[in-house]
Amino acid sequence: MILQGKVQTVQFTDFHDLEVCVVDKDVVKPAGGRPQYTCRLMRGIPELERLRARKKQASLQEIEELKQQIPLPHEDQVLTLVVLGVTGKGQFFRLLCEVVA
To answer: Do 97 and 81 meet the contact criterion of CB atoms below 8 Å apart?
Structure first.
């Protein structure tokens, strides 16, 4: 599934994963408004992939330095995301996504 998402918030989780809260630009709910999703970015940002590969061996200070090198999406930026999978249950789920350049 392809998702055109307008970025609302960007944050790193406690496990050093990058989560982005996006609003779907292509879908309007019947009652009005647009669906909002929390996406964990898995691929598509090379610096993030390097961080993920090194986070088990690196110290906390090195991880923080690597996180500062990652170009974060800006608020209101539209990202094209490919949904790779879904984690969680019920209303507490996250989309696992790849950023398309």
So the answer is: yes
**DSSP character for 35?**
-
Please classify residue 5 by burial: count the beta carbons closer than 10 Å to its beta carbon, then call 0-12 exposed, 13-18 middle and 19+ buried: buried
27-85 pLDDT per residue, tens: 888 888 899 999 999 988 888 888 888 888 888 898 888 889 888 899 999 999 999 99
pTM of the model: 0.83
Residue pair 32/17 in contact by the 8 Å Cβ criterion: no
In the chain, the amino acid numbered 44 is: G
Residue 60 burial (10 A CB sphere; 0-12, 13-18, 19+) = exposed
Helix (H) and strand (E) counts in the chain: 2, 5
**What is the domain partition of the chain in residue ranges?**
2-100
Using CA atoms, how far apart are residues 43 and 46, in angstroms rounded to an integer?
A: 8
